[in-house]
Amino acid sequence: MDETALEMTGVMEFGEMQMAANNSSHAIPPLPTPLHILDKFPENYAVIINGYLSPILVFLTIVTNSLVCIVLLKRNMRSPTNTLLVGMAISDMLTGVFPLPIFLQFFATDRLREYIPYRWCYAYMYLAEYIPTIFHTASIWLTMALAIQRYIYVCHSFKARVWCTIPNAILVSIAVYVIATLSQLSRFFEASFFPIEVSSHVHVNQTVVGCVQMYASWVLLDMKIYMSIYFWFRVLFIHLIPCSFLVVMNALLIYAMRVAQVRRMQLLRQNKKSESKKLKDSNCTTLMLVAVVGLFLLVEFPLGILMIIMIISNTFDINIIEPHTLKTLSIFSNLFILLSYPLNFFIYCGMSKQFRETFKRLFIGGQAPMDREYSAYMTLPTGTENGKTAVTTGNETAL
């Protein structure tokens, strides 16, 4: 089958759903076509974006996200929030790392003009599509967990000390990775690859051993249903619902910050400077996480829209966007997603004093700051619940 892949999480899958749905409408599967990269990507952008820009962004992400993990795992930085941020940093980094061999092997060379060699077929699908989709899915769901946790901190401070603990954050992270893996597990078994000798695309009068993709018998029983279930699941639970949910959560957090600012001014008028300082620090932390979620939404929404357009086109046989245009939009969506990964490091540096100080001490030595009031990153909210005032600092809540 001639695939043009769709999900940008694997950073290389673009129109697979469309071709799979079209082919599945045949009572007898069409003759297999050897896999060719230029069937999946617009050649005029593929080399510069996937061959040069994307590898640079992946290497930058490896550096920045490794530093994020090192800093956040320092003793003075450990918290439930930072546990989730470490999980997100690892997911984002691995989403780019796994396709990197494909970027370098094909897009950075002239090999993309040739059929994919048989020895690379499984590696191509696993590294460029299946595995990155798992980590990108995990990153999306961890972002949701981060927003929920922060909302509990801000609006339900008394419950935060029970629900929002480091062990719980670790359990949530593990559960997210397991469920994300299970959500993509069928992809690893849906097809096999077989060698086929074909005329070279590059060298005249030469042949190469490419590969054809043959779907498993259980998929061929009703490929239309299988593909519809799989991609509708992705549209709903990996894109549409998470993005919509995060828009609502960000709006609630912004509203909570405004309420907290009013409360802070009241505390200042009552000369309660210590509580006012904690509330200010909490607002700074919330603002930083709102920025992280906002950046996530900025790059994920275009991908979600493209997924929705694709699945609507296939379900109702409507040509909403021309295939070449959709390929072009997808490759740029991939680029923007990769670009967002290292930016979180700079958000942390710009909006967290304790992160900056801990990061500096990786190079200059010295004791990292432990005072939680000193940090806008670790101090949790001051609020009221059931008529009581709660001041949450670090991992504890003091009444």
Question: Would you summarize the structure shown here?
Answer:
With 399 residues, the protein is mainly alpha-helical.
Mind explaining what this structure looks like?
The chain has a single domain (16-361), classed as Rhodopsin 7-helix transmembrane proteins (Rhopdopsin 7-helix transmembrane proteins, Up-down Bundle), CATH 1.20.1070.10. It is elongated. The strands form two sheets. It has a three-stranded antiparallel β-sheet. A two-stranded antiparallel ribbon has the order 1-2. Helix 5 (118-155) crosses helix 6 and helix 5 (118-155) packs antiparallel against helix 7 (166-184). With 399 residues, it is mainly alpha-helical. 66% of the residues lie in helices and 9% in strands. The termini are far apart. A hairpin with a 2-residue loop joins strand 4 and strand 5.
Number of domains: 1
Order of helices and strands: HHHHHHHEEHHHHHEEE
Under CATH at level 1, the class stands as: Mainly Alpha
Shape annotation: elongated
Poorly predicted tracts of residues: 1-18, 24-28, 371-399
Layout of strands and helices, then pairs:
Blueprint: H1 16-24, H2 43-72, H3 80-97, H4 100-107, H5 118-155, H6 157-163, H7 166-184, E1 191-199, E2 207-215, H8 217-220, H9 223-269, H10 273-316, H11 323-351, H12 353-364, E3 379-385, E4 388-393, E5 396-398
Antiparallel strand pairs: 1-2, 3-4, 4-5
Helix pairs in contact: 1-9, 1-10, 2-3, 2-4, 2-11, 3-5, 3-7, 5-6, 5-7, 5-9, 5-10, 9-10, 10-11, 11-12
